[in-house]
Amino acid sequence: MIGPILCFDLGNTRLKCGIMQDGALLEERFFSEAALLAEVDTLLAEYRPQAAVLSSVIEHPPALEALLSRETEFIRLRYDTPLPVKIVYEKPETLGVDRIALAAGAADMFPGSHSLIIGAGSAITYNFVNKKGEFMGGGISPGIEMRFRALHAFTDKLPLVPQEAHYSFVGYNTRQSILSGVLEGALAEVDGMIGSYAARYRNFNVLLTGGIWFFCFPP
């Protein structure tokens, strides 16, 4: 039996870790940015993991890697980390490691088939792995919160509307109109992107993941 493995995913939306045992997810933990090191130290003491993998797209404390290297067999995910996917992106070193992780997971789960992985977080990313196991790239568009903030920041009178899972499809006031426009617009974008990939590649898997879920489900 392989000991627990900690899989850290430090993104712009959430800081989290999956505790894995023999390929199964035992538990998921979320961290606060202010107490990240202390919370990770507590997690290490609790599970005594054999190994740890770090996928980070933020400026995390350097001491985090030192801690993980001291307590575990540590791997920091990079574009040149050996993975079950071949990266054919023009400049692999510019790829976000979050996108690399998504592509690697899809290639491992669905070998020999096309897969489109949609990551809904601070940005919405579209990541395509072909049936040859090549991560070709995809697309990046503004995330939900970014869209709300942009409407407020780039206009004089539109308010900053907080995200809500329930809203009126036909907005009956400014707040509801912004909710409908942003959330329905994001849904239409995702649906349209899936349709565009379907027109080119026909049979393929669609995987949805990320820190922001509710917009994917109409009220």
UniProtKB/TrEMBL annotation:
Family statement? Belongs to the type III pantothenate kinase family.
Tell me where it resides: Cytoplasm
Taxonomic lineage of the native organism: Bacteria, Pseudomonadati, Bacteroidota, Chitinophagia, Chitinophagales
Protein name per UniProt: Type III pantothenate kinase
Oligomer and partners: Homodimer.
**Reaction equation(s) it catalyzes:** (R)-pantothenate + ATP = (R)-4'-phosphopantothenate + ADP + H(+)
Please describe what this protein does.
Catalyzes the phosphorylation of pantothenate (Pan), the first step in CoA biosynthesis.
Q: What EC number is given for this enzyme? A: 2.7.1.33
- Organism superkingdom: Bacteria
Named cofactor requirement(s): K(+); NH4(+)
Extract one GO molecular function annotation from the record.
Answer: pantothenate kinase activity
Q: Where does ATP bind?
A: 9-16, 122
The UniProt record gives the binding positions of substrate as 89, 96-99, 174
